[in-house]
Amino acid sequence: MDIRFNSDNAIEGSADMAQAVEQRLTERLETRFGSRLTTIEVHVRDVDGDSNRADGVEARLEARPRNGEPIFVAERAEKPLEAVNAALGTLVNRLDTVFGKADRHRK
User: Domains (ranges, CATH) in the chain?
Assistant: First the structure.
């Protein structure tokens, strides 16, 4: 499972942040879904400019299942890692649904 981290120029996408995001994604996804996913792309961006609202940072995750359509989720929070964690929770729920349905149809 390949993990790609991207941020816009308003978010400080340091190597430490990229490593923290990759570690968190690996912890949550590798064991349960690692063999079924080829790539996870993370896009973090500032959606409110200088306003710094409580939901001013958006994280979009794109999961690419083997032989399947990409799955997209997005969540907002005040800080980049909070937004990534929120989107990751949504992604896990979506993957459970998608792969659960696929498993039921395969039987």
Answer: 2-106 (3.30.160.100)
3-class DSSP state for residue 4? strand
> Which pairs with CB-CB distance under 8 Å and at least 24 residues apart come from 13-22?
13/44, 17/80, 17/81, 20/81, 21/81, 21/84
Q: Which of 59, 13, 61, 69 is nearest to 40 (CA)?
A: 61
DSSP tag of 78: S
Asked if residues 86 and 73 have their Cβ atoms less than 8 Å apart, the reply is no
CA 105-98-6 angle, to 5 degrees, is: 150
Dump pLDDT digits (tens) for 17-46: 999 999 999 999 999 999 999 999 999 999
Measure CA 5 to chain center.
9
